[in-house]
Amino acid sequence: MTTLAHIMQGLGQTSSLPLYQQLQRALREAIDKRILGPDEALPAERQLASDLSVSRITVRKAIDGLVNEGLLVRRPGSGNFINTRIEKNFAKLTSFSEDMRARGRTPRSVWLKRAEGTVTPEEALRLRLSPGAPVYRFHRIRYADEVPMCLEYATIVASCLPNLDAVDISMYDALEQAGNRPVRALQRLSALLLTGEQASLLQAEEGDAGLSVERLGFLRDGRAVEFCRSYFRGDMYDFVAELSTN
């Protein structure tokens, strides 16, 4: 806790933010800098309040917010832990890289394939393209820090990127720079058992539970830009959505 206390030095003295938001910021920084590692337990709320000279109400409010964000997880009878599982808001169109960075994780990719080509009959149907239309294909393993999280097989309409090498870490960053980032998407989630090849690439076991996500992304003018299939490790990823009666 010494290093965390150092991060929070001057708490309440130089910031106009409420104390609980300052504590949340400090905890996020501690997670980002690996001061608090994956699956590590936080000290008890009473101990945190004492170490940091704040009220338990402040600590509880800060932790509640980080639990809601998915950075922390409560385990009844055990305490609060850094969440190793990733929660993805299924109703929000964000990239894998954005999701990882928002949780203090470092995204990276291992390329399986990066190629130019023409649409398959299925891609032509999904992307509403004529037969023979040019596309770029990006197949890769997506990592959070050093942990493989998913396999991504994306097909992008070639006219929406300047060239094949435009995509580095984030495909959505490249599309945004080209003025062609999707603004809405249709997504389909289904359960599956990982094949031997998928399990090998994801450092899992054949037959382990996985999640398949199929996404079709559209530009503001209604044109389809992206058709992507991703296969996630079921033990590392959760998809959540907020529901209402409206």
From TrEMBL:
GO biological process annotation, one example: negative regulation of DNA-templated transcription
Native source organism of the sequence: Janthinobacterium violaceinigrum
Name of a matching Pfam family: GntR
Protein name (database record): UTRA domain-containing protein
Coiled coil region boundaries: none
Domain HTH gntR-type: 17-85
GO molecular function, one term: DNA binding
UniProt keyword annotations, A-Z: DNA-binding, Transcription, Transcription regulation
Source organism phylogeny: Bacteria, Pseudomonadati, Pseudomonadota, Betaproteobacteria, Burkholderiales
UniProt keyword annotation of Transcription present: yes
Highest taxon above the source species: Bacteria
PANTHER family: MANNOSYL-D-GLYCERATE TRANSPORT/METABOLISM SYSTEM REPRESSOR MNGR-RELATED, MANNOSYL-D-GLYCERATE TRANSPORT_METABOLISM SYSTEM REPRESSOR MNGR-RELATED
